[in-house]
From TrEMBL:
UniProt-recorded name of the protein: 3-dehydroquinate dehydratase
Annotated function: Catalyzes a trans-dehydration via an enolate intermediate.
Entry keyword Lyase: yes
Pfam families with a match to the protein in the record: DHquinase_II
UniProt cross-references to PROSITE patterns, sorted A to Z: DEHYDROQUINASE_II
GO biological process: amino acid biosynthetic process; aromatic amino acid family biosynthetic process; chorismate biosynthetic process; quinate catabolic process
Keyword check for Amino-acid biosynthesis: yes
Stored NCBIfam families: aroQ, PRK05395.1-1, PRK05395.1-2, PRK05395.1-3, PRK05395.1-4
Protein keywords: Amino-acid biosynthesis, Aromatic amino acid biosynthesis, Lyase
Top EC group: lyase
Record Gene3D superfamilies: Dehydroquinase, class II (3.40.50.9100)
The enzyme's E.C. designation: 4.2.1.10
Catalytic activity: 3-dehydroquinate = 3-dehydroshikimate + H2O
Length: 144
């Protein structure tokens, strides 16, 4: 099994960006934790971060035939992007949505996700652990 991890806008700033909300780990450190978890689960894992909606859409299209699952933190595009949602629906690759923060205890505009209806499920609020739990849940889903 091969999993694609997609990080949306501003997640390249993790570690320095609002650490009280998003934690102190950098994106690289989170990716290293995911790599360890992937090794334990015996799956291949690839990473991609972009601040550009269209690049994320392209990457989702490119994953068809290469990856069997997608783990995505769409960042702010969660709350705005019909294009990302349509891309995920279009390739029909099982996708798990994750958020570092608990978006439901934050501003109202973060309560709606365009991605959730096309995702297998969503994990929100556990910091870097959201990614680990998300990867475990995705692999469990793909194997069952
Ligand atoms: C986020 C939550 C989003 O609302 C926000 O725009 C982000 C990060 C999270 O991981 O908690 O950029 O996806």
């Amino acid at each position: 099994l091969s999993i694609l991890v997609l990080h949306g806008p501003n997640l390249n700033l993790l570690g320095q960006r609002e650490p009280g909300i998003y934690g102190s780990l950098s994106l690289n450190e989170i990716n290293r934790l995911l790599e360890e978890q992937a090794r334990d689960l015996a799956v291949n894992i690839d990473f991609f971060q972009s601040n550009h909606e269209g690049f994320l859409v392209d990457k989702i299209h490119d994953s068809w035939g290469k990856h069997q699952g997608i783990l995505i933190n769409p960042g702010a595009y969660t709350h705005t992007s019909v294009a990302l949602r349509d891309a995920i629906a279009g390739v029909n690759i099982p996708t798990v949505e994750v958020h570092l923060s608990n978006v439901y205890r934050r501003e109202e505009f973060r309560h709606h996700s365009y991605i959730a209806p096309v995702a297998v499920g969503q994990i929100s609020g556990f910091g870097a652990q959201s990614y680990i739990l998300g990867l475990q849940a995705l692999v469990y889903h793909l194997k069952s």
